Amino acid sequence: MKHSGYVTSVAFSPVNRRIVLSGASSTVHIWDIESGSLVCDPLEGHLDTVSVVAFSPGGEYIASGSHDGTISVWSSEIISQVLWDDGWIVGPEARLLLWIPMMYRDRLWFPRNTMVFPRGYVELDMSEMAHGGSWQECYNG
Predict the structure, then answer these.
(1) Where is 104: in which H helix or E strand?
(2) Does the pLDDT at position 121 exceed 70?
(3) CB 28 within 8 A of CB 43
(4) Cβ atoms 63, 72 nearer than 8 A
(5) What letters, b where the CB count within 10 A reaches 16 and e where it falls short, cover 93-125?
(6) Contact yes or no for 76/63 (Cβ under 8 A)
(7) Which residues on neighbouring strands pair with residue 53, listed in sequence order?
(8) Which residues contact 20 (CB under 8 A, 6 or more apart)?
(9) What is residue 89's three-state secondary structure?
(10) Alpha-carbon gap, residue 64 to 81, rounded angstroms
(11) Cis bond upstream, residue 118 (ω within 30)
(12) If you average pLDDT over residues 80-104, what whole number do you get?
């Protein structure tokens, strides 16, 4: 496992062979111990250095604390949605799902975030979004 920059915090999952770590960046990384590879794209949402990470006792959540004054609680379930720098949220196979205006991007609360303290973030609920092959189901004409 190779992480760029310095590491500020590391935690072992109590239920599987994963570790979570934070470093000088504003992101959180989940690594597979056996393969030495990243499990998913970095967890993004903090605006400053992430100084501490921890798994919940059952391993279903990851908490991260940042110098930006926020604590994020993430689902450890891997969700493959990514916000690109140009504002597009993409799903599996880099398919475009939704574009987010610039003024909301730094406060967007992804489905894998279960809580963000303090409040003030924008929550995007995509649980009932019709996309992919079923996009036409959103029209009830």
Answers:
(1) helix 102-105
(2) no
(3) yes
(4) yes
(5) eeeeeeebeeeeeeebbbebbeebeeeebeebe
(6) no
(7) 64
(8) 10, 11, 13, 28, 29, 30, 31, 53, 54, 55, 62
(9) strand
(10) 19
(11) yes
(12) 71
What is the amino acid identity at position 103? M
CB 81 within 8 A of CB 122: no
Distance CA 39, CA 41 (A): 7
Cα gap 69→50, rounded to integer Å: 10
For residue 78, count other CB atoms closer than 10 A to its CB. Answer: 10
Q: What is the pLDDT of residues 46-76, one digit of tens each?
A: 888 999 999 999 988 899 999 988 888 888 7
- Mean pLDDT for the chain? 77
